[in-house]
Amino acid sequence: EIVMTQSPATLSVSPGERATLSCRASQSVSSNLAWYQQKPGQAPRLLIYGASTRATGIPARFSGSGSGTEFTLTISSLQSEDFAVYYCQQFHNWPPWTFGQGTKVEIK
Amino acid sequence: QVQLVESGGGVVQPGGSLRLSCAASGFTYSSYGMQWVRQAPGKGLEWVAFIRYDGSNNKYYADSVKGRFTISRDTSKNTLYLQMNSLRAEDTAVYYCAKDRGYMDVWGKGTTVTVSS
Fold it and tell me: Average pLDDT by consecutive 10-residue portion of chain B (117 residues)?
């Protein structure tokens, strides 16, 4: 099973600042990596797939990078609606499909 | 528009059973694999089960539910199911169905399952 580890657990950022979230895989997942955003009481929403491709309707301030075992989600200028929990997920070796434990982006 | 709507959640005693449903619309349901993912209170996302587009014997389960849960689909009704038997307290969670592309590109709003005596 591929273990996904996200860091930090919590990221405190001021509106307008850049946020950088990390995701590490226990073995290579190539570019088979997705990022999701989840707000309280809501379902997860796909942001990024294939490590760097934005899903339909996702603003350009969200960008993904990386391959192999190290990945980054960057939010270039945080808006109020971006404060949420973010999860990475690998779909390279399955089953199981595995998620990271999440990074909470909170207002500083 | 593309939509997934879960139903069937509720409160059940330990050892009991429940069947969840997920109604799909706005896309060619028979062309896509489907997933169930759950989230325990205050916790992260946990993959539960997957079924291929054709509902073949290629179904996969998390170790935590294997032998207790069964995923199935009815193409004529555009509906996905999760039959949950021998429920435990640790199965308490919001259960989401999701459309599979390897990643999960469309999610339902979820249905809550509470296992408690």
Answer: 97 98 97 98 98 89 98 96 98 98 97 97
